[in-house]
Amino acid sequence: MGSLLEAPGPHRQAAIYVAGTAPAVPVDADRLRAAAQAMLSPEAFAYADGAAGRGTTRRANRHALDRWQIRPRVGRDITGGDMRATLFGRTLPVPMLLAPLGALELAHPHADLAVARAAAGAGVPMIVSSQASFAMERIAGEMADAPRWFQLYPSRSAALVESLVTRAEACGCEAIVVTLDTPTLGWRPDDLDLGHLPFFFGKGIANYLSDPVFRALLDRPPEEDLPAAVRMFLGVFANPGFTWAKLAGVRALTRLPLLVKGVTHPDDARRAIDHGVDGIIVSNHGGRQIDGAVPAVTALDEIAPVVAGQVPVLFDSGIRGGTDIFRALALGANGVLIGRPLFHALAVAGEAGVAALIANLIAEFDLTMRLAGCTAIAEIDRNMIRRGEP
Ligand SMILES: Cc1cc2nc3c(=O)[nH]c(=O)nc-3n(C[C@H](O)[C@H](O)[C@H](O)COP(=O)(O)O)c2cc1C
Ligand SMILES: CC(C)CC(=O)C(=O)O
């Protein structure tokens, strides 16, 4: 049997299963999540799925996205279709990146290495987490010249921050993302109930264990005394005293584009620009930090007009399909980050799972865009959507 979609296009066939054959990796985000849950330990699933407090913001992220209604334009020639977008001088096949996710070894033993290979295969940038399960140099080693960025938790140790940023530059990361919404971990009942956080067990700390500055803080090497290294990690990885003024210190360390992640207030978007950032990631960390925080897409709607094109605005927290990508772009985002579905796809089928997820998202976005009458990213503007009833 042929594919269900015959129209020409670079990614068109990606999501398409041959009639009668169910896809190995569920296409729908909810089914993908369920498949991952069936395979993972309760602790691993809870860590990724978990949210702050009662999960109000995690739910609100979806609810708010669903309220935005696409207003398709008809009677247009949609034979072609160009999803490419340029960010910081790099042309991407589609305005989509893989969000930084820590402790991916909970999902799959190949963790970040599998994600890196799938990302590189698709040309979709991977944002390597500070909390990666492999050292960033090994992850980069899987990617040839494919685009990768590095996400930094501003550590209490300025020397460690400098070392991490220097290493990221040296292994070919093309941008530095400073996450500002996690000066300390949020209140996460699922993890608390299970008494489990990956970091306590030495997971997701490979970038620290491989760092000369971090190792110099230890009395004995982590290979001899992992619990002591874990305690040191817990003591230094975050910096509750990190302020806008201190961002200048990170800015001074690198000539790479610097983005801040976790902005939801328009005044903070203004401040970020005043402090010389090159990009803003509107995100509430998938509702994992403050229960009751503003839905991320509502924040995007407020922030995009304030930024008004001065720097690129990226968006995450709730993106589950191609229509969500369309909504975010229509609200002024220059690109989106894929979060939890990436963890789920990795759990279900490793590198192949992530490759399938990426291909499916691109294919659905492609179809959404052209069915809405748009054949170029620039055509996806505010006029293409409206806010529906609550
Ligand atoms: C398992 C997991 C680990 C995460 N680790 C990080 C991290 O190390 N650094 C970071 O900036 N954000 C981290 N995040 C937040 C994501 O980058 C992203 O903001 C969030 O997943 C978006 O919400 P969504 O998954 O509901 O779309 C993590 C999220 C999850 C689910
Ligand atoms: C706080 C980190 C260590 C990991 C993270 O960002 C998360 O679990 O959401």
UniProtKB/TrEMBL annotation:
Entry keyword set: Flavoprotein, FMN, Oxidoreductase
Catalytic-site annotation from UniProt: 285 (proton acceptor)
Keyword Cell membrane attached: no
Chain ranges of the FMN hydroxy acid dehydrogenase domain: 21-390
UniProt binding sites for glyoxylate: 47, 153, 188, 285, 288
GO terms, molecular function: FMN binding; oxidoreductase activity, acting on CH-OH group of donors
Binding site for FMN: 100-102, 129, 151, 179, 261, 283, 316-320, 339-340
UniProt cross-references to PROSITE patterns, sorted A to Z: FMN_HYDROXY_ACID_DH_1, FMN_HYDROXY_ACID_DH_2
Keyword Glycosyltransferase: no
Cofactors required: FMN
Homology family: Belongs to the FMN-dependent alpha-hydroxy acid dehydrogenase family.
Name of the protein described by the UniProt record: Alpha-hydroxy-acid oxidizing protein
Organism this protein belongs to: Alterirhizorhabdus solaris
